[in-house]
Records
---
Amino acid sequence: MVDLLNVLNYNLFFLVTIFILGLFIIITGLLIILVETPVHSVMGLMFIFLFLTELALIFQLEFIAFIFVIVYIGAVCIFMLFHVKLLYTFVPTHYFSDKEDNIASLVACFIIPIIQIITLILYKSEYESLKELKLYSYSIYFAPIFKFQKVNYNFYNFYSFYEFFETITTTQILGYLLYNVYYIYLIIGSLLLFVAMVGTIRLAIQENTVKLKQSLRDQIFLEISTSLRKRESF
């Protein structure tokens, strides 16, 4: 953390922006717990991942930012919305008034573009300085993995893994670690998502216990006087 602050040169605007984004994340996380409807909880979760995307872009972690947008916002949150609709979850109709809905929409429409503009400004202004100081090597802290001998050297060139860190991009580092070191966790995570999907579908299936049957004998001997009702003419 000390090295990170030294690299950033105590940039006040940079740190204040990060603090504001973190504050938004905490507030949105509390709203996820406090709201009554699951739909609003999922929407709050999407806002959290949006703010995390802005933080990742500020720290030059483009790959993680795209993962937040594509995987979490575009897949997991949509999956949760389908889960809510499949289970016919009760949603109060008068949870918010029209005035409160309009105020919340206006606040969201103003806050999100402002945060994105600030993110782009920081992304452009800090890019050269961060590139010169090689902040990308500090952006991901993987100190626990260095105790393993299998990642101490590159498999092909057999030079130090620290030098290997300095010569490749953040995306290559993540790919190397995810698919060579932590691949078992990816498999476990995919299995958990598969179980969640199957469980959601199983809960959504409702067996219809009331079955309509027709009796041909009863229909043949049915009397017209008891089966038909005469309608009054206009």
---
Amino acid sequence: MGGLGLLALLPLMGARFGDVLALWRTRAGLVAGVCTAAYQLCFFVAVGQTGVAVGTLVTIGTGPVLAGVLALVLLGERPTRAWLVATGVCVSGLVLLVGGVESSAAFSVTGVAAALVAAAAYAGYTVLAKQQLREGHAPVTVMAGAFGLGGALLVPVLLALPTDWLAGARGMGLALYLGLVTTTTGYVLFARGLATLPTASVATLMLAEPLVATALGIAVLDEHLGFTGAAGLVVLLLGLLMQGADTRSLTLPRRRRPSVALASATSAGPRAGRCRPGAARGPLPSPRRAGW
């Protein structure tokens, strides 16, 4: 559902479906789609095997660390000391927050392994999305490519599971909300942040997800946190504020592909790009790729 929503947004945001097809013909585009599907599948397997608490802790807690390592190896993004400290504080808060939740699920090696695979898949498609944004692709195009292909790969899984809950208005409404609001809107904003922030910083800031989920549970579902969970919530918020205040982690905007006009001016020689004093400047060439 989220992939379809992202694909439907393409013409509304000045992008083209052909740009997504071009991504699918690249190795990075294919691997990003596979990672997206693997994350969804492995995360729910982990939750089913180990329970929500452990599955969430292992997947979301190790995701930023793996993203930082992959970004260093594949993109050359060296993490800052502030990121290391903020991420450590966030993960510590997540441990306390999850530790404050009672779970009847037994420990499962298979479940923990699935959670680690899910974390690696999340880090993988985050780093690959950053690479595609650097190449000049629009945020909506990058996310539509990853989630469109990932959704297509998960269709056999959907058909193998009971779908009776989709027949009712409540079930369909829930599916539309999860697909169009949480996935489509959320990941367009995710990609916009990824276009200007380091990969590791974005992955750490995504730890706001369990914090918001816990706050909604308290406000909407009248859930209660013990002392450990409340302390974890405060520590997690502190780590997120530390990461948000780390202005040194900001990077330059993503590179744009040069236009034909700019390429022609460059090839004409060193004097072609000079402006005489008093000469009027023409309009700058527009980027090839549509963006926000």
---
Amino acid sequence: MSKLAKDAAAFKSTLKRQDYTSWHSQPPPLDAQPPAQPSPKKKRPKSNIVYSQPADTGTGVHVNTQLVYAVNHLKSTPNPMRLQDLAILTNTPLDTDHVLLEKFKSHDRVLWDPKTDLYSYKHEFNFRNKASLLTEIQRRTRKGGGIAVRDLKEAWKEAPAAIEELEQDGEVLVIRTAKDGQLKMVFWNEIKGDEESGGKLVEQVYVGATSLGEPEVSPCTFPLRFDRREAVATSGLQTKT
């Protein structure tokens, strides 16, 4: 056997011993398994627990903050109060802090009665009935202006209802908001539409006129036809032809 034939036989023998399970070959398929389904998300159970909220301790620790809080509370109270009760309700050291007490007493909106030792809020207006309310409205209107209804309500919570009654009686004039018709400003009605003052409401005059039927037409005192030549001749003048 020639050398070439031996080499060919050796090459074939090598090919038979070669392992073809290389990276090109595909691995045997594994047993097919379905993809795992995600577990359903557990819902958090509803809790009926009501957690406690912090108390309204808006008094703060600064003297001026406590002063404002105490004055505002006194403003919302229609009746005079004892200092001890005000200190408890506002959680302020009014009865123990001398600096705070002096500031409170010297406030321009705080009234202190030394006889009863009671404190009250000094509103801009001081009235508690409809007659006094009308007097206050008249006084302000004479000065050239009206009064905001919210300011009157702060002094007397029944003021809006009393103003509406005065409006129906023709004693005051009011301005209402365009959106919901709430009372905004009030003025004294200086010119009232009654017979004593020589006037009537427009509606009453209109109703009286229409109830009598059509008025009679008075005869015309002017000539319906004007003749210029006749007028000139009557006056003694001559016309040029």
